[in-house]
Structure formats: C-alpha cells, structure tokens
Amino acid sequence: MTTAAKLPKSFAWGYATAAYQIEGAANKDGREPSIWDTFAKIQGKIADGSSGDVATDSYNRWQEDVQLLKSYGVKAYRFSLSWSRIIPKGGREDPVNEQGIKHYRTLIEELLKEGIIPFVTLYHWDLPQALDDRYGGWLDKAEIVQDFANYAKLCFESFGDLVQNWITFNEPWVISILGYGNGIFAPGHVSNTEPWIVAHNIILAHAHAVKLYRDEFKEKQGGQIGITLDSTWLIPYDDTDASKEATLRAMEFRLGRFADPIYKGYYPSRVKDVLGDRLPEFTPEEVEIVKGSSDFFGLNTYTTHLVQDGGDDELNGLVKTTHARIDGTQLGTQSDLGWLQTYGPGFRWLLNYLWKAYEKPIYVTENGFPVKGENDLFVEEAVNDIDRQEYFREYAEALLQAVTEDGADVRGYFGWSLLDNFEWAEGYKIRFGVTHVDYTTQKRTPKKSAEFLTQWFKEHIEE
Ligand code: PNW
C-alpha cells in the first residue's frame, strides 16, 4: 500500500464565522448599529424578515462555541470583529467601548488557552451606521480611509500581542457589487458608478491599515496581515473565442479588480476598457502603498461557473454565467442557493491559477455548502448532511492534490461555517453550518460533516 502524500504539520484548518452572522446581542454592552442592523429592518430585504439581533447568540455563548471548536479538533478559528462594538460610532474622534474590547480579548485568550490559533477579520461588512450617516461610509475616500486605519490601529494595539493572523477585509467584491451595485446587501444602493468608487476606497483603506501594521506593529508582534478576496473558478461555456475572452473579462471583474492592484499595483485592462472614466485611478503615492500590501492570498471560494459573452450585467463585465454545460448536463450537485454547485476540479484549478498569478501563500478562508432543503428537516435528519460531506470530500481532495501534486503553497483551510447562522439576505433559511442550530433553543448539534472533516484532516496532516 502506498502512503498518500500529506499536508504539512503546520497546516491550519478550522472553521470561519462573521460577527453579524453569529453574535446577536445587537444592543448589549454599548454596541451601536451597523449598516446591516439598519438594512435588515427594511421590509422585504431579508427573505424571512429576520435580522442578526439574536443570530446564534454567540456574544453570550462564546464559551460553548470555543468548546465546540475544541471538540472538532481544529487548529485555527477565523472570526470577525464588530467595528460598532469596539467604536460604536466608528470614527477616529468617537469614544472607544472598553466592553467591546474586553469581550474580544477574553474570547481570544480562551482560544489560545485551548490551542486554537485566531485568524481575525477586521471588516466583514458591518460598517458602523453612524459613518454611513455622517459621510456616506465607503463612498468618502478621505474620511473612511482614516477612520478604518484608526479602527485597525486600535485592534492591533488591543489584540495584536495575541493575534498573529490579520485579515483586513472580507470579500470586497461582495461589498461593492452586492452592496452598491445591485443593492441586495447593505446599504442597498443600486448604481453603476458607486461600486467602482467603493472598491477603490476599500483597497486604499486596506493598504493604509497594512502599512500601519508593518510600520508600527509587525516587528514587535510578529504577525502577518492580508486580505480575503472571493472568487468562483470560471470556465468558457464553449470553445468560441467570444466565450474565452468573456471568461478572462469576468475573472478580472471578480478577482483581478482587487488582486491585480494589491499584488501587482494596477487595475486589469479589460476592466478599464469596460468602465472607462468610472474606474478611479491610483495616484503614484497610492500605488506605492497598495502594491504588495498583502502578505498572503486569503481566498473564499464556493463553486465554478461556465461563462458566455453578452447580456447587460455591466457590474460583472457583461457576461452570462451558468452551471449547465452545453450538452445540458450540470457541473455538479445543486445546493440550496442558485449560484452554488459542487465542482472540486474547479477548486484545484483556482488554487493553481492564484499561486502562479500572484505567488503568495494561500489561505482558503471560506469554503462550504448549504444542502438543498436542509432547513425543512428536523434536526435528526439535518445532521445526516450527505451532500455537504461529499462537497467537503471533493474540495479537500482537490486541495490536497493542488498542494502535493501541483506544488501550490496553500497553508490553511476554513470551512464555512462553524454554525448555521444569519445568511444575510437569505436570513435563517439557508444553513451552511457543520453544526445545526435550533434557533428557538440555541441548541447546537454537530452534523456528520463536522465529523468527516475532523477525520479527514487527522488522516491528511503530518503528525
Ligand atoms: C460569503 N455570491 O458571501 C461570505 O463571506 C459569508 O459571510 C457568507 O455567509 C458565505 O459566503 C455564504 O454565502 C458570499 O453571490 C455571498 O456569489 C454571496 C456570494 C458569494 C459569497
């Protein structure tokens, strides 16, 4: 029998969550609203009319959640900080909330006590509402860049002695396109000019926070800092030049729009061609700080799409995407969300592509699957989540091959998510957790997929 190649001992695996999706306690201990608190209260924005007011109550049940992580044998946990818990009104002149800082510090200490490495995201979409009211939030470059840098600095000061892995932003594509383009996420703007401004300002805010960390904290605290971008793998729908060109263009709109400035220093050409004057330019001083502003490549990825030229969706580069192949067959197993089907080979391709294009160590900061119809099941049935186990098997194996056969430098993997939680515009109807949550009692019940991943990583990481 041959021994299969393994991931190195240092490989960090675990689960990811985000503050607004799990914490609840929306008004407790001095927290003030974020744009998601406001957005969720607008009639018709959330599929089941819910909000993150209670969510999985993890602000109160954090000890139970840490024990859950421990029982799964994870090496790392990725979570995000709620900006409006730490600085309730968000700005650089506004008061700091010591109770917020104390909460996160206690959580981080508990994780470390249990041998779990914290990966901390500064911004997972929950902008303090006060900053949106004050100057339009991400639309105001001069203000938001300074306020974000001030918030980041406070976090480095408050937690940086304990945290070695910082992620500035989660998925700027989602923030800019879903929040300011088609308006399905907070703050719900519909525009074809704002997304490009917002994206530009996020890149700058990220770069300033990274510069600050490198200048003032890195030497002393010894950590790494980077950004998490999201991307699907994209494949031409057919063999035509039009589909191939459309695929390259779609990739630049989804990923290159952020990755190229951050890792190479400039916007991709196809994006410039489509957007013209609407795409802001970086000044030479800005290029200086943006280029090279991420120590690693944080990747959130869920699926693969087939791409064709055409349609009128300018926000995504004038392409049409589908999961149905030209012969009518589907790419993979359908999930509970239209945009998500299983396709392991696409994940392997994407890892190879990123490693070759950007040459940075990759951390897969999210990957997961909502089983079709799971929310209609009783807990006894929901825990038998076969499609999620199959998804994780395919994706974990693709990752192993990318590392051990193709030579991609992938250093971590976080399943989305530790718990069923508030799935943004879908509310609580869509369940991504490896742990079932009963939202009436807040009882947590591990699903089979949690057992599967624990076992898989036990077998595939070197002792
Ligand atoms: C990510 N899309 O969001 C987020 O980082 C998580 O907070 C979220 O719960 C998870 O994926 C599952 O949705 C996305 O429309 C939301 O392509 C939408 C898309 C992609 C990612």
From TrEMBL:
Transmembrane segments: none annotated. It catalyses: Hydrolysis of terminal, non-reducing beta-D-glucosyl residues with release of beta-D-glucose. InterPro entries: GH, GH_1_N_CS, Glyco_hydro_1. GO terms for biological process: cellulose catabolic process. Its EC number is 3.2.1.21. Pfam families: Glyco_hydro_1. One of its GO terms (molecular function) is cellobiose glucosidase activity. Keywords: Carbohydrate metabolism, Cellulose degradation, Glycosidase, Hydrolase, Polysaccharide degradation. The keyword Hydrolase applies. Belongs to the glycosyl hydrolase 1 family. Plays an important role in cellulose degradation. Shows hydrolytic activity against several glycosidic compounds. This is beta-glucosidase. It comes from Phanerochaete carnosa (strain HHB-10118-sp).
